[in-house]
Recover the amino acids of this structure.
């Protein structure tokens, strides 16, 4: 299996096993963060829809 | 001693013979070239002494041009590097992580400026960064990040983290990427390494997000490099690193 590419300051190369292991941890953490942000955006849009107002109108309310 | 270096400064008097060698070295150098200050002083000494205010010379030993004030030799240049001094830079393409070369941070400078630009990405990514030593990223839970920010629609945002295994950075959901311009303070010293600067991300153009970036490695570890990790995507761009002159 081809490992992700890293640029190590000198050349583009495949990650070593150790680098790849750490990258997989980073990748899982990043996906969790990205999913959480997407879920938050979806929930926000749903709430605005239920309230029948736009994001700008919501900002006015909170301002 | 180089080909242009001379060991004497002729003083011509009536009926002196100007040799081809003397004329050639004068035409070749414009100003006299000496191997060291010792040969310079010897050349201007003795019966051939012609040293006077305004005399110029070049020293091979230190690669400088000097002038004589009438009392002493003073250096014209080159001037010592000051301000920001370029250290290294590179472009990268379709990489999942990017590391600065080993020994980017040295004892020559205490503080550094890094400009890291992601100009394209294969998809949504979260860029994190780590300090590095001897070719290995430091993944201990010593990173802290406190970066207040704002979206261009005026809503607030933050990047925060404490006891994490990397510095927190922005999540970019647009292929136009993001740019980090930060100062890295004390990375080589046995001191806390701190990162201060700015980050601009493009989450959904034309909207942008801007952060005042503050981060710290909570241990006095000495580092010689830094890595940027774009988990979930590959990135294309460039980096440039400068050292802050210590004087």
């Amino acid at each position: 299996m081809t490992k992700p590419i890293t640029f190590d300051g000198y050349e583009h190369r495949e990650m070593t096993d150790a680098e790849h292991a750490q990258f997989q941890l980073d990748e899982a953490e990043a996906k969790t963060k990205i999913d959480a942000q997407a879920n938050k955006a979806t929930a926000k849009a749903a709430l605005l829809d239920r309230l029948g107002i736009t994001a700008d109108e919501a900002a006015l309310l909170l301002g | 001693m180089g080909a242009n270096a001379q060991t004497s400064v002729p003083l011509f008097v009536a009926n002196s013979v100007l040799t081809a060698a003397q004329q050639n070295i004068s035409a070749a150098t414009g100003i006299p070239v000496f191997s060291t200050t010792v040969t310079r002083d010897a050349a201007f000494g003795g019966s051939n002494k012609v040293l006077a205010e305004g005399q110029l010379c070049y020293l091979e030993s230190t690669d400088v041009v000097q002038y004589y004030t009438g009392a002493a030799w003073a250096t014209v240049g080159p001037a010592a590097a000051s301000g920001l001094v370029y250290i290294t830079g590179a472009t990268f393409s379709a990489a999942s992580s990017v590391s600065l070369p080993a020994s980017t941070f040295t004892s020559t400078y205490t503080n550094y400026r890094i400009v890291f630009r992601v100009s394209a990405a294969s998809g949504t990514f979260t860029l994190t960064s780590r300090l590095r030593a001897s070719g290995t990223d430091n993944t201990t839970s010593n990173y802290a990040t406190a970066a207040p920010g704002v979206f261009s629609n005026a809503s607030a945002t933050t990047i925060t983290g404490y006891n994490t295994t990397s510095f927190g950075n922005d999540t970019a959901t647009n292929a136009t990427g993001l740019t980090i311009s930060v100062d890295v303070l004390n990375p080589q010293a046995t001191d806390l390494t701190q990162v201060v600067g700015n980050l601009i991300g493009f989450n959904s153009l034309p909207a942008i997000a801007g952060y005042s970036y503050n981060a710290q490695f909570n241990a006095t570890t000495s580092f010689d490099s830094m890595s940027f990790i774009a988990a979930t995507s590959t990135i294309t761009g460039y980096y440039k690193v400068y050292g802050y002159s210590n004087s």
